[in-house]
Design goal:
Blueprint lengths: L1 H28 L12 H17 L6 H18 L8 H26 L9 H13 L2 H16 L4 H17 L1 H14 L9 E9 L3 E6 L10 E5 L6 E11 L3 E9 L19 E4 L11 H4 L4 E5 L7 E6 L10 E6 L2 E18 L2 E17 L4 E3 L10 E4 L11 E4 L6 E3 L2 H6 L2 E4 L6 H14 L3 E5 L4 H5 L6 H14 L15 H18 L4 E4 L7 E3 L12 E3 L2 H19 L7 E5 L2 H4 L10 H16 L4 E7 L7 H4 L4 E4 L5 H17 L8 E6 L8 E5 L2 H29 L1 E2 L2 E2 L2
Parallel strand pairs: 16-22, 16-23, 17-18, 17-21, 21-22
Antiparallel strand pairs: 1-2, 1-6, 2-5, 3-4, 3-6, 4-5, 7-8, 7-13, 8-11, 9-10, 9-13, 10-11, 11-12, 14-15, 14-25, 19-20, 23-24, 24-25, 26-27
């Protein structure tokens, strides 16, 4: 609009100069007195000069009262000067003084209107409004100076027919025909036609605006517009935008194409200089642009990853987005979208189909995905940082591309199809207890063995209570078979049936076994250089006296201890040893309960009545052990059958595939119902992780490490760390060498 106003001003100035030159030629060549200032030149010097400057420069559109007073005064001065050439008391004199009176009245009334009208607000007095309207109309340069010119023609040129004809023709050309302005306007129009949009550039008209950032384009024709096609979304009521084609969302009077709009880069708007008539609606125009010109537009650069747009009902924890491209989408995949100034990552946890009405009975079906906020990835810290807000509606959502995953020694797993790892604070995992829950054959034991190796590398003493003997095989390199056999033989020798005592509590071999076990664990934790001990509670033959001693036979009824009861003895012994060492903030000893439903069962799942008390003793050891550095790693495939007293103390959870409702209901309290609902469909070696030890603040679904790649990465990192420590210690070693002795 400003550009059009500038063109009109230039047209008026050019017209003024051309008309002034034309009038000069007429005055010089037609009027007999030429440019001599007399009554024959009033029409030029006063009439046409004022008419041109007033109508072309000062008051091209309307005449305010101040300008009306000025025009009237100038006309009045010229006519008074011309009255010297008119005979007094004649009809011409009467006509002249009538026009002078009109000019005087216009001038006076204009001044009065300026004096009495209110400086602010609307004028309400009818007489003032009428006066204002009258002086604006009569005082315009076209009206008042036309009267002056016609009067001068009658008074001073009527005897010369040629002068009358030429002057009136000049007046008609300037006031009525305006040929110069018409020619200039046509030239501008012809020039603009080179930039007018061609029919093949128009993709369609704007059917609807879905603020912010989305428009629906009613496409012309049947050609399919590929996803990611750049276009200009333009109208005359706002800034032009760069549009990126997303997907089709149905049809009403034509195919409806959804278009994402972003800021139009500088320089691209000049490709289209004039829009066609759109009857008030915007249009979408095809745009030819080089990759360099679109390099700063993420929606174009990442179009292959653009999978949807944020929709309503998103909140601070979850984002809901309408899926525009479902290739590569799956549960657990990561997507990213913009929240404020950050690119925030979310994990897909659910999806559903929806249907909306487009027009009348036409419908549009689509998929809507639900993703939980993970956070902003901090490469320096190697973890996700929280972002405390939500994305705007219609913000584009991008699928994180699959990268070749390289196992990090610090990561226990990674987000599916990405290189983002999830770390674990192994000390927190022990002191605040950890549980691995899931059905048989999905990788629980391999995960627990990985965690055990991390504990060993961190200097934590690990006591594995394993009914399957799997740990002794998979962790054999951390065990001395001969030493382990010697210790087991000592425990077996301390066990057995034992002899009856008058005091039933002293009968059997419970006390001897407990004392020997405490002695071994004390040496293991305090003195032994080894960090792993594997015990099978079912392999020990320990008895308790259940009846009174018979004086005749010297015997009494005996009963063997169950694995649950032996587990309680081991748990008590571990707590006693840790208590003797005092309080500590870091992990010191970890009890691994493999097949925990058999070692620490729920009260309604016990095999023998004594298992209830035994489970309570194990639970008490775990409850009291944290401040002494004692914790547990609990592994089970039957959540419902494990004592909730211990399970509820597990602050870190690895939830793997599970089907039973009891397990899902229990886990929903930890990881939320959304994640709990996807547990039955989890693939093997996948788990939902949540808790204090995780590097993520929220529950996340991860792909766990495979055994051999983990060993390759983790042990190489441990060897490098050991070499660095040794290198750092060597100067101290050399300084402390005395008499061939090395002291540390």
């Amino acid at each position: 609009m400003m550009e059009a106003a500038g063109r009109q001003t230039r047209h008026r100035v050019v017209g003024l100069l051309i008309y002034a030159a034309l009038l000069g030629v007429v005055q010089y060549s037609v009027v007999t007195t030429g440019f001599t200032p007399n009554e024959n030149a009033i029409w030029l010097y006063s009439g046409f000069a004022s008419l041109l400057f007033g109508s072309r420069l000062l008051n091209p559109h309307f005449t305010p009262p101040a300008d009306a007073a000025t025009n009237a005064f100038m006309a009045l001065a010229a006519l008074i000067a011309g009255s010297l050439g008119v005979a007094p008391d004649s009809a011409d004199s009467t006509l002249l003084w009538s026009v002078i009176a009109l000019c005087t009245a216009i001038c006076i009334v204009s001044v009065l209107v300026l004096l009495i009208r209110p400086p602010v607000g609307a004028e309400t007095r009818r007489i003032v409004r009428l006066a204002d309207k009258a002086v604006r109309s009569l005082g315009s340069p076209v009206v008042i100076f036309t009267i002056v010119i016609l009067l001068c023609v009658w008074l001073f040129h009527r005897t010369r027919a040629d002068e009358v004809a030429v002057i009136l023709s000049a007046w008609a050309v300037i006031v009525v025909l305006r040929p110069v302005e018409s020619v200039l306007g046509f030239v501008d129009w012809a020039r603009e036609q080179w930039g007018v949009v061609r029919a093949d550039q128009v993709i369609g008209a704007i059917a609807a605006y879905q603020s912010p950032g989305i428009v629906l384009v009613r496409q012309l024709g049947d050609n399919s517009v590929p996803r990611g096609t750049p276009m200009v979304v333009a109208d005359n009521n706002g800034p032009w935008m760069l549009g990126i084609a997303l997907n089709y969302v149905g049809r009403d009077e034509g195919n409806l194409l959804r278009v994402l709009t972003v800021r139009l880069p500088e320089g691209l708007k000049s490709r289209i200089s004039k829009l066609p008539e759109t009857r008030g609606t915007g249009i979408a125009l095809a745009l030819s642009a080089t990759p360099e010109e679109l390099a700063d537009v993420p929606a174009i650069q990442w179009i292959n990853r653009l999978c949807g747009v944020v929709v309503s009902d998103s909140n601070l924890d979850y984002v809901l987005f309408e899926v525009t491209e479902d290739r590569g989408l799956a549960e657990g995949r990561l997507v990213e979208t913009r929240v404020g100034d950050h690119h925030v990552i979310f994990q897909i946890i659910d999806g559903l189909t929806r249907e909306d009405i487009v027009q009348q009975k036409n419908t549009y079906g689509y998929a809507r995905a639900k993703a939980r906020k993970i956070g902003r990835w901090d490469a320096d810290a190697g973890k996700f940082m929280p972002v405390k807000w939500l994305p705007r509606i219609n913000t584009p959502v991008f699928l994180l591309e699959s990268d070749q995953h390289v196992i990090s020694p610090r990561a226990v797993g990674h987000f599916p199809s990405t290189s983002f790892g999830v770390g674990l604070n192994i000390s927190d995992a022990v002191t605040h207890n950890t549980a691995i829950l899931g059905i048989l054959g999905i990788g629980k034991s391999y995960l627990s063995i990985e965690l055990v190796e991390r504990m060993i590398a961190d200097g934590i003493k690990v006591i594995c209570l394993d009914l399957t003997d799997q740990y002794a095989k998979l962790l054999s390199e951390f065990l001395d078979d001969a030493h382990e056999k010697q210790l087991d033989d000592e425990l077996q020798k301390a066990g057995g049936r034992g002899k009856a005592e008058l005091n039933r509590e002293e009968g059997g071999t419970i006390n001897q076994f407990s004392q020997k076990l405490a002695e071994q664990l004390r040496a293991f934790v305090v003195e032994d250089g080894r960090n792993l001990r594997v015990l099978n509670p079912a392999a020990f033959d320990v008895w308790r006296q259940t009846g009174f001693k018979d004086y005749k036979t010297g015997d009494a009824s005996m009963a063997p201890l169950t694995p649950t009861e032996i587990t309680a003895i081991i748990s008590d012994a571990a707590l006693t040893v840790c208590q003797e060492l005092g309080m500590i903030d870091q992990a010191r000893v970890c009890l691994v309960y493999e097949e925990a439903h058999s070692l620490v069962p729920e009260w309604n799942s016990v095999v023998a009545e004594g298992d209830k008390a035994a489970t309570a003793r194990s639970a008490r050891a775990i409850l009291q052990g944290r401040k002494y550095g004692l914790g547990c790693l609990l592994i089970t495939q039957r959540t419902a059958n494990v004592t909730k007293t211990i399970l509820n103390q597990c602050n870190t959870i690895f939830a793997m595939r599970t089907f039973d409702d009891t397990g899902k209901e229990f886990l929903s309290n930890y990881i939320g119902r959304d994640y709990a609902s996807i547990l039955p469909s989890l693939e093997a070696r996948h788990a939902v992780i949540f808790g204090k030890a995780s590097s993520c603040e929220n529950p996340v679904l991860v792909r766990l490490n495979d055994r051999q790649p983990f060993l390759n990465a983790f042990r190489a990192a441990q060897e490098l760390l050991a070499a660095e420590i040794q290198e750092a210690l060597e100067p101290d070693v050399q300084e402390n060498q005395t008499d061939g002795q090395v002291s540390f």
